[in-house]
Write a structure and sequence with these properties.
By secondary structure, the chain is an alpha/beta fold. It is about 50% helix and about 5% strand. The longest helix is centred in the first third of the chain and has 17 residues.
Length: about 550
Amino acid sequence: MAVEAGISVDDDNPKTRFVRYLYVGKEYPVYHSKTWTNQNHFTMDKLASVVELAADKETELFPITQIKQILQSGLIPKPETLMFALAVCAKQDKSEKLRQAAYSFVVEECKNPEQFMLFISFTSQLSKQAATPKHGYGHGWRNAVNRWYLSRNAVNLAECVTKYKSRHGWKHRDIIKLSHLATKGLGPDVQAVFKYVMYGLEKAKLEFGNELKASEVLQLVERVEDFRHCEDAVRAAGLIRTYNYTLDHINAHLMKYPEVWEALIDNMDLPTLLENLQRIHNLGILTPTSQVTEKVLSAITNKDQILKSKIRPAVLLMVVRTYEDPDKVPVFIKRKLARKNKLKNRQLPNPDKRIIDALYTALNTSCSNIEPTGLRFLITVSADGCKKKSVTPTPFEACNPWVLEAASIIALGLLRAEDKVTVSAFTAAEGLNARPVHIDKNATFQEAMEKMRARSSVPPNLGKPILWAAHHRRKYDVFINVVDKMREKYDFTARAMDLYKKKMNLPNTRLINWVVGSTSTYMEGKYVNDVLTVCGFDVNAPKAIEAFAKRQF
């Protein structure tokens, strides 16, 4: 029976669609894994709800209000959606009040230079995509840019322009030039920074070198410039320790030296270290006797740091599996081929078993970072695709086995955070029989994987867990199906959900179908009441699932 997409008024109103976009990058409830930065993804028509909201005086400021509320949640999978939404608010022509509010929000709230430059990139793209393409650097844009730069003191501004010289295809020099920023009347220290951005250090020193007030920022800039041109790894390591320089300050030619990484790791937080672990390994630095290896081990075995960082299990899972064997990680084929081409003729060292073991231990610890919601969950898994080879190639390689990984990280996180969690597997038997998977809340990731592997080898019928719960009068707030692929012919989840809600008097129950082995489904563009479809696997997918379960969108 084909899916019945029951569109409700709540699901299809512009407020709901706008908030949904912020979380999943679409106005309909389908989350896609991997990168969203291709040009076709960020176009005005993808966020039509902003224009609808802006056209109504009662709702014209709703987008800014929601962005303010959501920004602090920590559950936005990809920050690009927030910045693109702000760019659309700034470029729509239905509400001048919304346009000004968007620019003000960027000036007051988006202090991070990366966020600011991403906003600049999006506004430029949207101007070019307009029916009548414009340059997009009008009075409102210029005023916002000038306010953003001038809201910083001289030292903060100098740190900003030296650490983040360029991002998202834009340089500070280009942005300032287009904004026609007037520096006359500003303090000599601020003028010195802008002179450096536009004309270089020598001209800045020549004009402001005798100004006592500008000496501090000029020294700061000179130190960074000196560091960027440093060729001696030992001296560079000393400068890193003295001035707390980060990866953003370092030129690529210094990255091959162990001394530099030793110094960097001392001041590096755990998420940044994990993000760069494979990069360090590919350089051949993580040898058994290396001091860098010892520092890495010390960082990833620090339980307090893992809990303090709030790092999520999915992040550590991707790190450890990439470190073990990058070819078995679900990434796009194009990216995999690019990696092979980049590393051809290079013999990479074998991964260190101590690091692998430490990463798995950290993964088990990080499951305690999931915050409780007080909701009741039923997780049902089917890894039927793991037993077979796919006849038709998918955009991912080695993707099907990740059904078990995805189910395990979701299950372990929820088992430790919540009091009422049931884990089960799809059954081959007729009727509504359930196959429980008994997993201890303190089980390791490997133990959970083995339990699920033994139980979950049957093709999924997505409505069966819901009907089973209704038949046995089990109360659940959230159903999560983790499967290899969806089969439209056997999908009757819409009817099953309606039946369950009425029978159990639980109108707010929600369903999440995590389709790990596919990058798209027949759910594209459809609204099914209280149902989210997640396609593929990436480190942010569990965030989208958690936010949806909490009814944040």
